[in-house]
Request: fold
Amino acid sequence: MATEKITMPQLGESVTEGTISSWLVKAGDHVNKYDPIAEVMTDKVNAEVPSSFTGLIKEIVVPEGETVAVGELICYVETEAGGANETSTSATEKLESQGASQVQVKSSDQSMKKRYSPAVLRLAQENNIDLEQVTGTGRGGRITRKDIEKVMASGDIPTSNVQVATPVVTEDIQPKASKTVPHAPQPTTQVGDIEIPVTGVRKIIAQNMVRSKTEIPHAWMMVEVDVTDLVNYRNKLKNEFKKNEGYNLTYFAFFVKAVAQALKKFPQLNSTWAGDKIIQRKDINLSIAVAKDQELFVPVIKHADEKSIKGIAREINELALKARTNKLTADDMQGGTFTVNNTGSFGSVQSMGVINHPQAAILQVESIVKKPVIINNMFAARDIVNLCLSLDHRILDGLVCGKFLADVKETLENMNENTVQVY
Amino acid sequence: MPVMSYIQAVTTALREEMQRDEKVFILGEDVGKKGGVFKATEGLYDQFGEYRVLDTPLAESAIAGVGIGAAMYGMRPVAEMQFADFIMPAVNQIISEAARIRYRSNNDWNCPIVIRAPYGGGVHGALYHSQSVEALFANQPGLKIVMPSTPYDVKGLLKAAIRDNDPVLFFEHKRAYRLLKGEVPEEDYVLPIGKADVKREGSDITIITYGLCVHFALQAAEKLAEVGIEAHILDLRTVYPLDKEAIIEAAKKTGKVLLVTEDNKEGSIIGEVAAIIAENCLFDLDAPVMRLAGPDIPSMPYAPTMEKFFMMNPDKIEKAMRELAEF
Reply:
């Protein structure tokens, strides 16, 4: 019997760490080489980690939800080679293997992790030790008095981290209230309530949203765009396009194209807040939001300004398909500089997007709605769409964003058979 | 330094005390000509004569009563109960008279008697030859109960008991008599009654016990040391009154305490030890106080398998120690 290690794989070039979103096996399970053993999440990509060996899962080292660096040990596999001489193990060896199995129980079972003995609590309080950060060697992961004494002897005492308050956000009217939120008493559940543990992508989404809304002072604008000509043009093309290309020519592709062009003229919106400076991005890489069941992914159309409407439509189709089949890679998600969100696909006519950190703005493309409008003092039935922009008010002001939106509006309103080339 | 057995240490202490003080005399069943059923008084009859080594009738109440009377009149009797199991007829004498007389007479009288009795099992002695009786006497202020674990402690503590001005019950483990050997200084020395003794230093778990179980615990500790578990072993030596300071210190040392006795679990000496720890050591405890004791059944069975089931041994202690260490 040989014990082999499985480590966190490299799931993308710039990826340095991954979070185990769920284990697909447990200690004692038999796995074949290349069998998936865990789901790992990096940034917003889910990937499966294959087993590098055939054997028994001996010990799972990294619990679900924990983030570890690439190359770090995540579990042990006991391979089956050489199992024949097991019968001749001497008594002492048996004792050792017994000890080993007890160690295994220790590290996988964490049920006693938060059961503190009086001695442990007292020492932790007297020395201001954050017990959350202490590894327990006792049964069920219990932190023993010796564990605390070792921590104290090491001199490296993990104190409870004081939250560093980020500079007060202008839009945040009640900073105190928001600060108290994480410490609010746990809501109680009643009979019939369902408790859903927050894990995986949901957890990441939550973290990112909190980060965006607490760090970025959001401001908001909306313009109304008359896309009657675009609708007519697209309706004329769509059946033939689908027949020729095999995928839909969506309105969204036109919007993405218009935004990419406008960003070229207003690079201020294609930027990032970096504390003491603002970084304007040269590349125009548009993140698009793709929803799937309980999850939300934001893959990226790279160099959108250089692509034709057909090229954009194809990429949207590909990314959406990948998201639905869990095939998005870290590379698909990286490098976004601005987000275009197709909220209209949910029927929304107006929404306030949360900026995709660390970008500077997000544009929500709402539903196209037929409306009576006045043109030349006459009523006309027109196809109207709202474009809603959330902007990082540290970087951007109303003036530049107004100009940007006006530009997008103008481009879209002038999209027709004569002005636009799909191919 | 000569090496002698546990029982030789008893005989040596008796001989030396009889030589030192003429008031010291021995009484009991078959202690004289026969030298005792375990040979604890062997040679003393020949050396000191029939008036200092008295063979008595088979009447434990009389052995205790005669001894108590003599003690109150200034003698230093060492009374022997052939087996601790036979002490029951003498309980009234011991508790009602010996233990109470100093208090009852407002210090006018005292009773410097030693009552020796072999206790404990593991010798295929069954019901009447295997019992541990210390708990019966362990809530009687006025009495002292000494239960040594090594030949060295036997000599020093038996001498201290004989010289003590109040009644002392001196319980010797009969299996230890010829099982345990150790170095015993030739010179005269006494060890303090009421003081526990650290028999092994360690930092992982604390074992508090007494008598033969100290020996078993030391054996278990050596095995566990091989896997890196270091046990701290406190030998109570005097089980009544208890050495509270030493118990508290030993318990605080590791915060994980295993208490061991061969006696039935409920109401045993270690229950009181556990209470002392509970009262004084809460914020140093890292695990629930653990008790390892005989089952709560009337007595040590005769069948070897069942005796083994009842009797304490190093394996049982090792298992409990390991469990506590891993907690």
About this structure: The first strand of chain A starts at residue 2 and ends at 7. The first helix of chain A runs from residue 91 to 108. Chain A touches chain B through 16 residues (CB under 8 Å). The mean pLDDT of chain A is 82.
